[in-house]
Amino acid sequence: MRVWDFPLRLFHWSLFISIVGAIVSVKADVMWLHERFGLTILGLITFRIFWGFLGGHYAQFRQFLTLPPIAFQELKTILKPKPKTKAGHSAIGGYATLALLGIPLFMAISGTMSNDDVLFEGPLAHLVPNGTDAASSSHRIGENFLLFVVFLHFSAIVFYKYKHKRNLTSAMVTGNADDVTVRSVDGSISIKRKFFGIFLMLVFIATAQSILLLRPSLF
After folding, report:
1. Is a pLDDT exceeding 60 seen at residue 218?
2. How many CB atoms lie within 10 A of CB 84?
3. Average model confidence (pLDDT) for the chain?
4. What integer pLDDT is reported at residue 71 of this predicted model?
5. What is the pLDDT of residue 31?
6. pLDDT tens-digit profile of 136-182?
7. Cβ neighbours of residue 52 under 8 Å, at least 6 residues apart?
8. 9 within 8 A of 172, measured Cβ to Cβ
9. Which of 209, 210, 204, 207 is nearest to 48 (CA)?
10. 219 pLDDT higher than 60
């Protein structure tokens, strides 16, 4: 059955590429590219927030955000040999999704106001001259949290693949989940809605990239 709509899958893999690109480029000290990846992340996550209300059934926040006690109760069941499998995010997965959106969003926003203590400044650093050092410090600390949640995400994928024989990566590529044991709603969307989602994503990415225009000219 269809679970993940195409705009959501496109967002997921675009965010993955952008986060990897941001990490690699900053380690290689290619700051202009790091900045581009960071702004792309900002645009993508802004899109995801809107798509959490406008997207397919399983993309919507109301479908997977639950009270903490439900998530803790679910945590006790995932170690069972054959837990019931439902479509979409689990309660725990819902909180993981918030972390995977919130931390990169924080990194992208703080990055626009950061500096590298040498020559490079984010495009909005001039707007907070007394706060750019704090933004830079927060940005560096946030990197550790980002790497941690990415590690947890990959660990969960491996756990489900070998413990419960569920290929979460394949489902995010095809959009389909064939191992659902609980009766679930189909997550398909119309062609018009699909193209609207793609268009909306491109608009948010382009808008985020245009933040560079706010950087003061050197001449």
Report:
1. no
2. 9
3. 87
4. 72
5. 92
6. 999 999 999 999 999 999 988 898 787 767 787 888 898 887 666 55
7. 59, 60, 61
8. yes
9. 204
10. no
Q: What are phi and psi of 181, to 5 degrees?
A: -105, -10
Q: Over the stretch 3-16, which tens digit does the pLDDT of each residue have?
A: 889 999 999 999 99
**At how many degrees (to 10) do helices 68-77 and 91-111 cross?**
120
Query: How would you write the chain as a 3-class SS string?
Result: CECCCHHHHHHHHHHHHHHHHHHHHHHCCCHHHHHHHHHHHHHHHHHHHHHHHHCCHHHCHHHHCCCHHHHHHHHHHCCCCCCCCCCCCCHHHHHHHHHHHHHHHHHHHHHCCCECCCCCECCCHHHCCCCHHHHHHHHHHHHHHHHHHHHHHHHHHHHHHHHCCCCHHHHHHHCECCCCCCCCCCCCCCHHHHHHHHHHHHHHHHHHHHHHHHCCCCC
Dist. CA 117–CA 127, nearest whole Å: 17
Distance CA 120, CA 99 (A): 28
Name all contacts of 28-31 with Cβ < 8 Å and 24+ positions apart. Answer: 31/116, 31/120
Structural domains in the chain, CATH included, are: 6-214 (1.20.950)
Percent of the chain, pLDDT > 70? 89
Residue with tokens 């790091």: 34
| Residue at token pair 């007394």 | 130
User: 164-168, long-range: CB within 8 Å, 24+ apart, which pairs?
Assistant: 164/78, 164/82, 164/83, 164/85, 166/85
- Beta carbons within 8 Å of 94's beta carbon, 6+ residues apart: 64, 65, 66, 71
